[in-house]
Design brief:
An eight-stranded parallel beta barrel has the order 1-2-4-6-7-8-9-10, surrounded by four helices. A two-stranded parallel sheet has the order 3-5. The protein is of the alpha/beta class. The longest helix is centred in the middle third of the chain and has 24 residues, at 151-174. It contains eleven helices and ten strands. The protein has a single domain (16-351), classed as Glycosidases (TIM Barrel), CATH 3.20.20.80.
């Protein structure tokens, strides 16, 4: 998640994992009363974004452009993933600082990103360039949504951020990327600076000929965003809370947010969506669940419910799941579906096989 904490993956699986064709790891069954399910994919168009946020490991030989990354990219292609989002990083000193710095990470140079784009192109994958921002202030549980400045600070921040976004938009153009996500989840910046994201988009269009999107926070930002006319689609980091335990329950709980999104009368792309393989993943997908019990079956049900519910809407253009690392187990993050029942759900929907 944008600005999220590194989370520990709980390497366990419930009894339902075996029912979905996965090897269950050692853990007591969770929710034994919930019936197993079979993925029920519907046909998806070639233009549908079968996406994954491809997360960089900040270590030479393990991150973007590495041989290890190519191995994982091939695995994603076998699952039917056709689109990846690359997440270069800039850094800010604090939530009250207008400074933004980038280019100092020796583990992720522009040349590494160029090579990662070449690897994706060789597999026929489309690439979204999706710059992120990080601060040590985020370690306390805050993130992009909490950056709060005075008017002069916002002017300085947007000037610095625009330079950052334009740099990676130009790199995206050079690398033949299909789209650029110019920003994500800057809730206070959006609320207090109407028109500012349209100006960022205008600057990016001068150097990038492809599609532009902004990834708005699921909680209020996407509804308050005044600049959608400057973008090719509505982008949402879709960590909406779901209710219920069965797939049918979870599908039903998508109706309210999807009806609200439909009212925008625009194409919608989930620039992020994801669920952790733990108890409570569906009801609080945005929270850290490091100390919760493992429940990969809940993760799988939530994946299936999102795909069933959202693909019924003709304006829904696809999803970039959060997330998969350039090498596994990566940061042992419970969002990663690799080796879990959710991976089988992805394969059924994206590749047409279980």
């Amino acid at each position: 998640m944008a600005g999220g904490l590194t989370r520990r993956q709980l390497l366990a699986a419930s009894g339902a994992a075996a029912l979905l064709g996965c090897t269950a790891r050692s853990a007591p069954p969770v929710d034994p009363g919930v019936s197993p399910f079979e993925p029920a994919p519907r046909p998806l168009s070639a233009d549908f974004r079968r996406g994954m946020n491809f997360a960089h490991l900040h270590r030479r030989g393990y991150g973007y452009g590495s041989a290890r990354a190519e191995v994982q990219l091939r695995r994603l292609a076998q699952l039917g993933v056709t689109d990846i989002a690359l997440n270069p990083f800039a850094y800010t000193r604090s939530l009250s600082s207008p400074s933004i710095e980038w280019g100092g990470d020796d583990s992720m140079t522009d040349d590494d990103i160029r090579e990662q784009c070449r690897q994706a192109a060789a597999l026929g994958m489309r690439v979204m360039m999706k710059p992120h921002l990080w601060s040590w202030s985020y370690v306390a549980g805050q993130g992009n949504s909490d950056i709060d400045l005075d008017p002069a600070g916002w002017r300085q921040w947007f000037e610095a951020y625009t330079a950052y976004a334009v740099h990676f938009a130009a790199l995206a153009a050079e690398c033949g990327c299909e789209s650029v996500c110019v920003g994500l989840e800057y809730t206070i910046a959006t609320r207090e600076n109407a028109g500012a994201w349209a100006r960022v988009a205008e600057a990016c269009r001068k150097v990038f000929p492809g599609a532009l999107v902004y990834g708005a926070n699921w909680y209020e930002e996407w509804e308050r965003f005044t600049d959608w006319d400057a973008f090719d689609s509505v982008g949402v980091d879709a960590y909406f809370p779901l209710t219920g335990t069965t797939v049918d329950d979870l599908v039903a709980s998508w109706k309210a947010p999807l009806d609200r999104l439909e009212a925008l009368k625009r194409p919608v792309l989930f620039t992020e969506a994801g669920f952790q393989a733990v108890v409570g993943a569906a009801s609080h997908p945005w929270e850290s669940h490091d100390h919760e019990r493992a429940d990969p079956a809940e993760q799988a049900r939530a994946y299936e419910a999102l795909l069933r519910a959202c693909t019924e809407r003709p304006w829904f253009r696809g999803v970039y799941w959060w997330k998969w690392f350039t090498d596994l187990p990566g940061e042992n993050d419970p969002f990663v579906p690799a080796g879990q029942p959710a991976e089988q759900v992805l394969q059924a929907w994206f590749a047409g096989r279980g």
